[in-house]
Structure formats: structure tokens, C-alpha cells
Amino acid sequence: MQKEKVITAKDLTKRFGDFTAVDKISFEVEKGEIFGFLGANGAGKTTAMRMLCGLSMPTSGSASVAGFDVYKQNEQIKKNIGYMSQKFSLYEDLTIRENIQFYAGIYGLTDQRIKEKTELLLKELHLEGQEKTMVRALPLGWKQKIAFSIAIVHDPAIVFLDEPTGGVDPITRREFWTLIYEASARGITIFVTTHYMDEAEYCNRVSIMVDGRIDALDSPANLMKNYSAHSMDDVFLHLARKAERSE
Amino acid sequence: MRVLKFLLQKELRQILRDPAIFRILFIMPMIQLLILPLAADYEIKNINLGVVDHDHSEYSRKLINKIVSSGYFRLKDYSATFKQGMYAIGQDKTDLILEIPAQFERGLVKEDEATLLVAVNAINGVKAGLGSAYIQGIIQDYNQNVRMQWIQFPRFNPQPTIEVASSNWYNPNMNYRLFMVPGILVMLVTMIGSTFAANNIVREKEKGTIEQINVSPIKKTQFILGKLIPFWMLALIELTIGLIIARLVYGIIPLGHYITIYIFASIYLLAILGLGLLMSTYAQTQQQSMLVSFFITMIFNLLSGLYTPIESMPQWAQIITRLNPVSYFIDVMRLVVLKGSSLSDIKYQIFALLGFAVFFNTWAILNYKKRSG
Predict the structure, then answer these.
(1) pLDDT digits (tens, 9 = 90+) for A184-215
(2) Could you say which of A57, A75, A85 has the minimum Cβ distance to residue B217?
């Protein structure tokens, strides 16, 4: 049975002058999938993700996200996706509750719904009683978990996560992935970039980008088998070592 | 509308929470309004006078006394020769030398003629010009007195004299504060308007939060309005504080209506905030936006008619002042405060400012891109 495709990219390319950041990548992501988007620094992951989110105009190729075309319907795409950028994106001078309120508000949730969502979110993150804390005062791991929860506060079809666990301790990383699994169980498709190979193994399928191209795309188990590797680490090293360009 | 509500709520929370914004908004302008008008006075006083008196007569002493007692001059140097007098100018001890020739008294009384030499240090052009004008006025007056004393005027003066009596309308006492305070207030409101809003957007760029806005379905117009409205309100509050200080401290009560000032200021702020937002869509860092807005507001202020009358600028500069929103507001402030102009008197300025507001804001919205190329 053919599963519903929520992201399809065909020969998607982005050039900055002479530099081809993303070179004709093609892939599909199925609904409800946790899709890992791997690659060394500078391989073009963030650029590819920004094109899919409607933040960056593709040079050529085609792609659709949640059934909308990235060229023409980028504003419709934005209603249906959540995005958590590499740069920390909450307002540090607002409290946790105010951040939730703001982001839920700009996605058009009703006051009643915002209230429900806020309570639910605080409970899920075990932050009851802390809602009046300024975000600036929180440790990084907490901020990242809140940022993720806020990125899916409007129940999008897909959420894009750009290295969400960079610089976060292993315990918090685990907790973070629990949140990802919960979101996935609710039917939200997860598109995530990461440098941690243990995290890659949590994904249903992973793609590995090298020099702007996708060099491998399969489930972690199949990849390990194909490259006769013992771990995703080996697969990644095997592929990424071929890279000619550096950061 | 609902989205805008959330944007405004967020913006106001951040502004009210930022202690720096509060200080800059309220304390800085108060200090400026309390100090600047006292210092920015066009009247030239305390001109340092050097005298080279070769005559040492009663008349020369009378002349010097008259000059010094005018209040504009301070006798700083009394030299025996002109060369020594020049030396004092060179040392920056004096600004102006008055040389009284020997035989001054005799010439004046007996021959009805005397020559005085005035030499001015023109490094400060305004001081030099006004100083020599003052001293000439005083000497003329002195001369008149001497002539009255010694010469019998003919019954019919063959040369009719024209006497000019001037009266200063709208600012009868030529009070510089009346003239400067409204202008300085405009400058303050302008700085708040152009710098704050611009910096605010650029800060979101630097922190990366703008990315989160760009990936949301917020419309560009909503985003720009969300930034414009809070700072528009802040600047009007700032204006109110300024008007209160003007009234309480300087006793400046506009002859026109306050409402006229507010209506005009509201439109003016839309224009100047639009300009600030426009700059912010180009700038990538707060340094860039600060420098650019500093540069622009400096030109705006110098070409606004605040310090120098627009009418005396060269033609090309006068044309530039027509493209300068600040000059309209300073003009209107003075018209309303000093002359009591009403809305219908300032229609032309209102239309001009509406034009600026539409122009800058449209450009800002067009140039703000949620998706990079």
C-alpha cells in the first residue's frame, strides 16, 4: 500500500553564485515518519530545509510540502509546518507562558485553545509553577524542549528541526527524543537534522548528504547492512570522508 | 487583526520590561530639554575685547566705558600698540581689537571727524559678524551723542533721516527658548522614532527570532504594523512629556491647540517610523542600523531649519529640506506654538507628510522579505 507523501523533492537545487549548496536532491517523506537528515557541517542540510520551509527560494528543481508547492504556495506551507531553527528562537525576555501565548496566537489558535495548550504543554514538560520564569533564565536543554513544544503548538502536519539537540546533555537529549516520539505518535511528520549518530538510529529513515548531494537514503538497519557497518557512525564516516568541501 | 493583537502584546511586554528603553525614553529627553535650550542661544555675549588706546583722552575712555557697559563685551586686553593687540588675538585672549588713534578727541571735537579701527578674529564667523555689528552700533550711538553735544543741527536737515522702528511679531521679546524648545522637542521625537523601531527589527534579525516569524503565516503588513504601532505610541508619550516640560519649565503654552500638534505629530511619526523600518529591512546588524540612522538624523537635523533659517540656505539645500520630514515638523511646531496656526493653515505640511508616510512604509513592506533569494 502506497503511503501518503507529505514531502516530495525532485532535483531541488540551490546555488549561491558559483557555489552549489544543494545539488539536485530528490527524496520523499511519508506521513508520520521520523526522517533523519544527516550530513557533515556545510553539506547543505540547513539550506535544503530552509527551501522546504519557504524561507529560501530554490534555484531549480521542484518540491512540495504538505501538498503545497514551494515556489508559489509558500505561505500555505507555513500554516502547515512547524520549524525550530539552529539558532535559538524563543524570546528570552518573555516568560514561558508568554512565549507559548505569542506563538500560538500568531498561528491563529482561539483563546480557549491557547489556554488548554498552555496547560497541557506545561504539564508535559513538568514546568507547572514555572510559567512566569523568563526564558533567559532557563538552562539550554529546557529551552530546546520548550522551543520544540512551541514549534508544534499549532499541530502542524510536519515539523522541521534543525539540529535541535546541539549542545544539550545526554539525559535531556533522551527526553527530547521522547517528545519527538510523542509528536510522531500524534501523526506529526518529523524532519530532523542531527550530528549525533545514536539519534540517527532513532529515525525511521535517514538520508546522508555529502557535498550538497544525497549519497544514501534508507532505514538505519538497511544502511548498516549495505555498508557492512556495525553502527551508523561507521556508515556516516564512510560516506562523509569522501566530502571534498569543508565548511 | 487577531494576529496583530498578539504581535502588539508581545512588543509592549518586551518594551516595558527593558530598563534601558525606559531610561532612554524618559530620562535622556528630560535632560536634553532642560539643558539644551539654555545653551543653544543665538545671542552673542561675552565677546572678549582688546583695546589699543593711543589717545588716552576723556572721550576715548567714555567710548570704552560705553562699549563695556553694553554687556556684550568684556575688556580683556589693554595694549599700547596694535601689534601687542594682535598678539592678544593670536593668543586667543581677545576676539576683537578696537584701536583708538591719537588725536581722537581733537579730531572728533574740532574737525568733526575721527577714524577708529576695528579688527575682528573671524574664526567663529557668527561671533565675528555679530561682534563687529554690535560695536559699530555702539560707536554710532556714541557718535550721535557727541554730535548732539557739539554741533548745532540745521533747522531743516538737508539729508532726511529715515528711522526704522521694528517690532517682533509672534515672539515679541525674541525669546530664544520659545524658538528652540519646540525644535529640540521635534529632534527628540525624531530620534526615538527613527532609531528605536529600526534597532528593534534588527535585533530580532541578530537573535534569530525573525526566522521564527518568517516561517509563520504572519503577513508582512501585520509584522510591520506590529513594530510601528508600539513605537508610535511611545513617541507620542515622549512628545507629551516634552510638552509638559516646555509648559512647566519654560512657560511655553502653544497659542494654537495641542490637538493640532498631536494630529500633525501622529502623521509625522508614521513617516519617520516608516523610514526607520525601511532602514531596518536593509541593515543586518544593530551597528549598521545605528550608524545609518545617526547619519540620516544628523543631516535631517542640520537641514531642518532648527539651527539656521532655511531661507538663507543655498537653493539646492532648500530643495533638500523639502525632502526632509523634520523640517516640516519644526516649521509646524513653531507655527502652532508661536503663531497659533490651525489645521487649515498647515494643510500643505500635512499632505507632504502623508506622502512621506505612504512612501516609506510601502517601501519598507515591499523590501521586507520573508523568503531570501
Answers:
(1) 999 999 999 988 888 888 999 999 998 899 98
(2) A75
Q: B92 touching A, CB under 8 A?
A: no
Q: What is the mean pLDDT of each run of 10 residues along chain B (373 residues)?
A: 91 88 78 80 78 87 87 86 87 87 82 80 79 84 77 59 67 71 86 83 90 91 92 91 89 91 95 92 90 87 83 88 91 89 92 95 90 77
ipTM for this prediction = 0.88
User: Which among B18, B209, B371 has CB closest to A55?
Assistant: B371
Domains of chain B: 2-40+175-367 (no CATH), 47-150 (3.40.1710.10)
CATH topology of domain A32-57+81-240: Rossmann fold (3.40.50)
- Chain B environment of A87 (Cβ under 8 Å): 207-208, 211
* Helix-strand-coil split of chain B, %, nearest 5: 70, 5, 25
Q: Do A102 and B10 touch (CB under 8 A)?
A: yes
Q: Cell 507559548 belongs to which residue?
A: A100
| HSE toward the beta carbon, residue B308, CA cutoff 13 A | 12
Q: How far does the CA of residue A59 sit from the closest CA of chain B (Å)? A: 9
Rounded-to-integer distance, Cα B363 and Cα B361, Å: 5
Interface test with A, best of B3, B6, B372 (most A CBs within 10 A): B6
Q: Please indicate whether, in this complex, the C-beta atoms of A92 and B207 are within 8 angstroms of each other.
A: yes
Residue A116, φ and ψ in degrees, nearest 5:
-60, -50
> Can you say how many angstroms the Cα of residue B59 is from the centroid of all Cα atoms in its chain?
42
